[in-house]
Write a structure and sequence with these properties.
Helix content is about 0%, strand content about 45%. The chain contains no helices and eleven strands.
Length: about 130
């Protein structure tokens, strides 16, 4: 998935991996290279990161990051500051061992809601945006 992390990087694309490193793609005339990765501490202490979603959760036109914190039984939302960094995560409780996350507007209010698959209790949770 490619995103832009700041208005300064609006002509750059960005790539993230499941390790949640962020790279800027620097485009040249007939080639491209990657900048040094930006490591973002995402998971809670003693937790495991299982999945990542990228979506603008607060309607500021900047892609934010949602992560599953499996051993902490929550999801974390990191808001994009627009400067290539993210605010500390705000966590929301889920079922046991959230292993997958997606974001989509499920109730037609034009706000992305968070859908979480919880592995241990075999449930799906929906966190509606307020």
């Amino acid at each position: 998935m490619c995103i832009s992390l700041s208005s300064e990087a609006s002509k750059s694309n960005c790539f993230y991996s499941l390790e949640v490193s962020v790279f800027f793609i620097i485009k040249g005339s007939n080639s491209f290279s990657f900048s040094k990765d930006i490591l973002i501490p995402l998971t809670s202490v003693n937790s495991k990161l299982w999945d990542v979603a990228v979506v603008d959760v607060n309607s500021d036109s900047k892609p934010d990051i949602i992560v599953t914190n499996a051993d902490s039984d929550n999801v974390g939302v990191l808001l994009n500051t627009g400067t290539g960094t993210f605010a500390a995560q705000t966590t929301y409780e889920t079922g046991f061992n959230p292993s997958s996350v997606a974001a989509v507007d499920v109730n037609s209010d034009s706000k992305p809601d968070i859908i979480v698959a919880n592995q241990v209790d075999n449930t799906v949770g929906v966190l509606l945006a307020c």
